[in-house]
Amino acid sequence: MRPDTPAENVDHNAEAARLERTADRYPEDAEALLLQAAAHLELAGDRPAASSLYDRLLAAQEGLDHPFLVRALKAANLWEYGHEAEARAIIEGVRMAAPRDPAPWVIVAEALESHDELEQAQETFTEGARVLLTDVAEPPYSTHPLLFGRHRVRRMLGLAHDDWDVLADTLHASPVSLDELHDPKRVWSLGSENPAELEAEISRLRAELGTFRAALSRPFPVAVLHWSAGELAELVVGYPSLSSEYPSHEEHLATIEASLRELAASGTGNLGIVSGTVPSYEAFAASEGTSPAEVSLLPQYATTLAARGRAVEWPPQRGASCWCGSGRGYGECHGE
User: Fold this and answer.
1) Which of 13, 34, 108, 194 is the most exposed place for a label (fewest CB within 10 A)?
2) Counting beta carbons within 10 angstroms of the beta carbon of residue 82, is it exposed (0 to 12), middle (13 to 18) or buried (19 or more)?
3) CA distance 281 to 238
4) DSSP tag of 183
């Protein structure tokens, strides 16, 4: 599908079939491709077929990068076509597993919210925040939807603001506050004949649309390319001109951390790290008709890997291992 194709003109079934064929050709990217295919099938209204794709992924769970994300998506999809009991069981399993990825928490909480289970949704959002954000000074970009969703549900329940609601307000960049966007009385204003109320609602909708567009403009992280020691050694032996870019592995790792911290300090969110391999890089260079020795190809390769869902979030979640592969905690390694 071309990026400029209007959504209403997309043949979702055809796009899903294309993505499945691509997944067969590139098994290393099958997880990301099949999740996209399942999304197209859901949009096409073929929810049973989407569930089959989720089952296909879960059958090979040991090789999945994000097994709880797949489970959460399957649960949300099942509930939409009448399999409530199974969906609830999967949601409970995701909650009990307490994944370190915010996406499964958001998906299962929103599934509960969409079916008017507001108390359960609020509890799920709160559990996710507790797991991922306790003693975290600066919430990672990927956790923002967790805090915003929690704020929205608590507003609908009429609960008083707590510290995480205040934090959500702080992180929200729109000119219209979260309290206003999440006001349950907004629905009433849509039936108003008062021009001032209708104009205010149009302004709120524009602010929401701007937020959605900003998120969609960068659906995958700004990623920095990482090479393991063995892969980097093979790379510079095969392409000596790249040694000026990578004087040593230690310097390479230090440069990654410094670059990411600089990006974060400049206000860039949604940062990540992608790990390259020489065969994959050579194949990418061949597809671009360029020599792997070209330094300008490296950031393009990183962006392509990120678009394929290969990025690991930076900074790592609290207590997680360092991104460099040392086996030490991030706080004891490059996070010092």
Assistant:
1) 194
2) exposed
3) 12
4) -
- 196 Cβ contact partners less than 8 Å away, ≥ 6 residues apart: none
In angstroms, rounded to a whole number, what is the distance separating the alpha carbons of residues 281 and 271?
21
Confidence check: pLDDT of 109 > 80: yes
Q: How many Cα atoms sit within 13 Å of 33 on the Cβ side?
A: 17
- Which residue bears the tokens 């709120």? 204
Dist. CA 262–CA 250, nearest whole Å: 18
Residues 6+ apart with CB under 8 A from 326: 333
Share of the chain above pLDDT 90, in %: 53
Judge contact between 275 and 227, C-beta under 8 A.
yes
Residue 138, Cα to own-chain centre: how many angstroms? 17
pLDDT tens digits, 140-196: 888 999 999 999 999 989 899 999 999 998 888 777 777 777 777 765 555 556 676
Q: What share of the chain is helix, strand, coil (3-state, %, to 5)?
A: 65, 5, 30
DSSP classification of residue 160 = P
Is the entire prediction scored with pTM above 0.70?
no
Q: Is the pLDDT of residue 216 over 50?
A: no
d(CA 313, CA 85): 33
| CB of 276 closer than 8 Å to CB of 245 | no
Q: Looking at mean pLDDT, say which of 41-45, 216-220, 303-307 comes out highest.
A: 41-45
Cis peptide bond N-terminal to 6, omega within 30: no
CA–CA gap between residue 311 and residue 269 (Å, rounded): 14
